[in-house]
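Priority: low. Protein: Methionine aminopeptidase. Input follows.
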Amino acid sequence: MIEILSAASLARARVTGALVADILQSMKRRATVGTNLLEIDAWTREMIFEARAASCYVAYEPSFGRGPFGHYICTSVNDAVLHGKPHDYTLADGDLLTLDLAVSLDGVVADSAISFLIGDTAHPESLAMIQTTERALAAGIAAAGPGARIGDLSHAIGSVLSEAGYPINTQFGGHGVGSTMHQDPHIVNTGRAGRGYKLQPGLLLALEPWIMADTDELRTDPDGWTLRSATGARTAHSEHTIAITEDGAEILTLPTPGTAA
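Result:
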C-alpha cells in the first residue's frame, strides 16, 4: 500500500516526527558509559506514554522476526545494525550505539535512527562510518521531490556509500510510512536513477542508509531479531522520515530547537 497524506495528516506527522527526534536526542544524552540497554528502553517507554503516543515495535511481528518484538526502541551495539533487541548489556567506553525508533501519534507514524559513540575513546573508523551514512541520507533527501523516482533516491544514497568503499546490503532499506510503520514503496540503498515509483506530494518516506565495515552479509542473533554483520565488523545507521511537498522534501524527524544532544 502507498498512502498519500492530506494536509491535516501532514500537520500531525510533523508533531510525530518531532516527538521521535526529541526522544532519540534524550536517549543520546542519557546513554553514557554504564548505561544499560534496558534502561534506554524503559526511558523511551516513559517518554512515549507521557506524549500519549505508541511505539510501533512492541507488538511488531513481521515474518522475519521471532514473535512480537516486545520493546519500545531498537538498540544496536557495535556489530549489530538493525532490529537490535534491548537486553541486559551495559554500555562501555568506545561502543558504537544505534537507536532506531518508530512512534505513532494521532494516527500518523514517524521513524528515525541515529548512530553515535559512547564515552571519550577515539574511534575514527566508526566515526567515518557514521558520517558516511549521514552524508548518504542527506544525498537521498536532496534527490527527493515531486516527480523524482524512487531509483533517484536509491542511486543518490548508494553513490555515497559505494564511493566511500562500503559494501551495500539490499535486503533491508527505506520504506513508505503513514498510518502504519512499513508501507510501499521499498527504497533499497543502491539503485539506478530514473526508475521506480514517481514521488508525489503527501507521500511520507523513511530513508535509512546503513552499512557494515567490510561485508554486505547479515547474521541473526538467537533472539530472532537482532541483525549483525556476518564478520563481526562494526556498523552504522542513519534515518529520517521525510514528506514530499510541492517544493521538494521536508525532514519531519528533526529535534525541537534546543533539544539536540
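Helices lie at 7-30, 37-50, 124-143, 150-163. The chain has one domain: 7-251.
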